[in-house]
Write a sequence for this structure.
């Protein structure tokens, strides 16, 4: 049962990062070194609280009235704040706070000596607070508030090194694309409030069961709006353009926000609102699965041709998020979105592991380069970085023994059982591409050329290394520990045909990549296929297309307004009005001819008229 | 003679004076026409006083007589100044108010 103590622990877990962010913002420059310690303490508190709540299996909700708005048919829309925690929230709480703690420890070493040290930790903790608030919110308006706050913190963190114009533009692009999704999400919330009068998630769940006729006709629209919001946050196909550029931020930011948590917020939202998307008569989930499939394949294709290691991981994230969305869409037939959540959890851990290992490599060479062809020449720090990267890579390809394998098999099994054939074969293609690109990256970075092109490097600090080891342990350990009901989703029988089939596809990908890149000095694909590689290089020109469209739209508006201004406004204001006044003035000027007798006549005549008028009026 | 006839004569005199003000060219002629108008008003007032037994109209006539004397004095002074500056006393030379 829920006791008062547990409620207090929920509040502490939720507010601890916020309090530490506030304290950090009050630090002055002399004690700025304390910022990281305060941040670590804050995230440690929230992590301990989250683990406690998870062990105790806290399930409760607190609903406090906030404000209410009148609707147009005499109903009132009441908005509440407070929290509503169930297994899904518990799971996300643990993941977010644990990864936050690890990233804070890692950042203590990574951001050492940076001029924005204090600002970084403050915004990171604010982000953690917002993400925790998002996962425990039970009113959609409160969720939307934290959704926007998360996007804003992401903007601040991507543009952490704002003196670089590329970073500032990337931050701007991220917030704009997220804003498109936010608008769609808000429209969905408003439609939902108008039809049902409430935005509390548990009340909506009951309404869907009790009276589904309220949603008839609107179920697709609401689900679609919510999905567009989730798609912008989770980098699904047309709205994925912000994520590769978001790699301009520091590597721990990429690990936390754009690998593990914020981009998972979209998947979390779809899972939370799954009962809305799963309304009978709504075809949103089919759309979701196809968009997820396109994202999965496209992310994999683009990752094959990238040379910047962080961008490879960004496209990998996009591809894995597509994987999660495909499984969400296919869950229409099983009514159970758990496999996607399980993959979300395992992806959070192994993606954070991948990014942190890459961060070790990048820091060892002082950020000289991000190119995998040049990173292979590091000597010191390469072994630890590549070890972490290897474990992360084994997770992502589904090597047995790691948690990535379990979650991947879980998704593949439900797709095989329920999905359309094209989705199943597309997912297998995605599996092949995943194996190919991650093996490519690993092989290129592992094989060092002769020592003629050595890059000087130094050993990373202990702060950075321990989280990597811990994440490795987690990814191995969670395979064996059955700690959550989500684990059921990943259990399939040991030697099924599907498992061997997918393993064989993965192995094919690994072998192909190894053969292609083992002895390569420069990219060998150029020699074989010219124009497809060129298309992939430019990411199918998607970025350029959207850029041109946006600029073209603004220019079109400008030309229209200029035309109206020149030919109508100028015409009226400069030609018509002065000419009219001139004609009128010429007409009236005739009476000013200087002949005194005319003036006298005018005076006499007007007085006559006035007197006659007075007489006529008085006689009435 | 009745009140009506006196008033009709007064109106006719007033209109004659008015036409004279509007159409005469010489300044002195305009002043004479103004005097004719004043005289017409005096006639109207006196006849009203006689036929309606009111003494206030006669008092008003005395006031008008005084004022018209002043007005003629000022008008003649102005005519003298205009003659000195423009060497003729026709009205059509005073055109400086033209736009």
């Amino acid at each position: 049962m829920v006791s008062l103590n547990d409620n207090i622990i929920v509040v502490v877990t939720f507010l601890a990062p916020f309090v530490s962010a506030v304290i950090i913002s009050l630090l002055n420059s002399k004690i700025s070194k304390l910022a990281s310690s305060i941040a670590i303490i804050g995230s440690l508190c929230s992590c301990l609280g989250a683990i406690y709540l998870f062990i105790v299996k806290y399930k409760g909700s607190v609903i406090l009235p906030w404000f209410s708005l009148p609707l147009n048919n005499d109903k009132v829309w009441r908005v509440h704040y407070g929290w509503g925690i169930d297994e899904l929230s518990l799971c996300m709480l643990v993941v977010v706070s644990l990864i936050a703690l690890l990233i804070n420890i890692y950042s203590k070493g990574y951001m050492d000596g940076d001029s924005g040290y204090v600002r970084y930790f403050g915004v990171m903790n604010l982000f953690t607070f917002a993400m925790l608030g998002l996962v425990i919110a039970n009113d959609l308006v409160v969720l939307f508030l934290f959704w926007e706050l998360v996007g804003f913190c992401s903007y601040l963190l991507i543009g952490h090194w704002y003196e670089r114009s590329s970073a500032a533009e990337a931050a701007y692009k991220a917030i704009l694309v997220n804003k498109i999704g936010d608008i769609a999400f808000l429209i969905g919330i408003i439609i939902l409030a108008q039809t049902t009068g409430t935005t509390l998630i548990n009340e909506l769940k009951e309404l869907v069961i009790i009276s589904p006729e309220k949603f008839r006709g609107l179920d697709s629209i609401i689900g679609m709006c919510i999905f567009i919001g989730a798609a912008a946050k989770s980098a699904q196909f047309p709205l994925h353009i912000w994520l590769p550029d978001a790699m301009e931020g520091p590597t721990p930011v990429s690990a936390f926000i754009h690998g593990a948590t914020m981009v998972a917020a979209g998947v979390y939202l779809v899972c939370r609102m799954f009962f809305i998307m799963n309304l009978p008569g709504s075809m949103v989930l089919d759309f979701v699965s196809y968009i997820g499939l396109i994202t999965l394949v496209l992310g994999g294709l683009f990752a094959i041709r990238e040379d910047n290691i962080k961008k490879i991981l960004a496209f990998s994230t996009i591809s894995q998020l597509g994987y999660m969305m495909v499984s969400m869409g296919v869950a229409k037939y099983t009514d159970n979105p758990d496999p996607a959540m399980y993959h979300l959890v395992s992806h959070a851990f192994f993606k954070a592991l991948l990014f942190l290992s890459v961060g070790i490599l990048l820091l060892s060479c002082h950020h000289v380069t991000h190119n995998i062809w040049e990173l292979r020449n590091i000597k010191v720090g390469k072994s630890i970085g590549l070890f972490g990267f290897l474990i992360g890579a084994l997770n992502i390809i589904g090597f047995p023994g790691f948690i990535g394998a379990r979650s991947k098999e879980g998704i593949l099994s439900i797709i095989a059982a329920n999905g359309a054939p094209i989705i199943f074969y597309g997912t297998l293609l995605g599996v092949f591409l995943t194996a190919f690109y991650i093996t490519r990256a690993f092989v290129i970075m592992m094989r060092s050329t002769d020592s003629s092109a050595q890059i000087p490097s130094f050993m990373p600090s202990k702060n950075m290394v321990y989280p990597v080891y811990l994440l490795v342990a987690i990814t191995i350990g969670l395979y064996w520990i059955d700690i959550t009901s989500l684990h059921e989703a990943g259990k399939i029988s040991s030697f099924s045909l599907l498992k061997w089939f997918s393993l064989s596809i993965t192995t094919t990908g690994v072998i192909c990549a190894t053969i292609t890149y083992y002895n390569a000095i420069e990219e060998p694909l150029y020699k074989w296929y010219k124009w497809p590689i060129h298309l992939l290089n430019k990411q199918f020109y998607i970025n350029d297309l959207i850029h041109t469209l946006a600029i073209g739209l603004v220019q079109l508006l400008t030309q229209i307004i200029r035309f109206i201004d020149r030919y109508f406004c100028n015409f009226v204001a400069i030609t018509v009005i002065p000419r009219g006044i001139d004609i009128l003035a010429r007409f009236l000027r005739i009476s000013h001819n200087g002949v005194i007798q005319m003036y006298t006549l005018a005076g006499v005549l007007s007085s006559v008229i006035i007197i006659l008028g007075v007489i006529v009026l008085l006689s009435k | 003679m009745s009140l009506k006839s006196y008033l009709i004569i007064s109106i006719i005199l007033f209109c004659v004076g008015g036409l004279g003000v509007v159409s005469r060219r010489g300044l002195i002629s305009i002043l004479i026409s103004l005097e004719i108008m004043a005289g017409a008003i005096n006639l109207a007032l006196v006849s009203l006083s006689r036929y309606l037994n009111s003494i206030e109209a006669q008092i008003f006539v005395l006031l008008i007589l005084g004022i018209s004397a002043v007005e003629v004095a000022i008008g003649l002074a102005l005519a003298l100044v205009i003659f000195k500056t423009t060497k003729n006393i026709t009205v059509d030379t005073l055109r400086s108010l033209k736009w």
Observations:
- The CA atoms of residues 236 and 438 of chain A lie 20 Å apart.
- The longest helix of chain A spans residues 542-589.
- Strands of chain A lie at 60-70, 76-85.
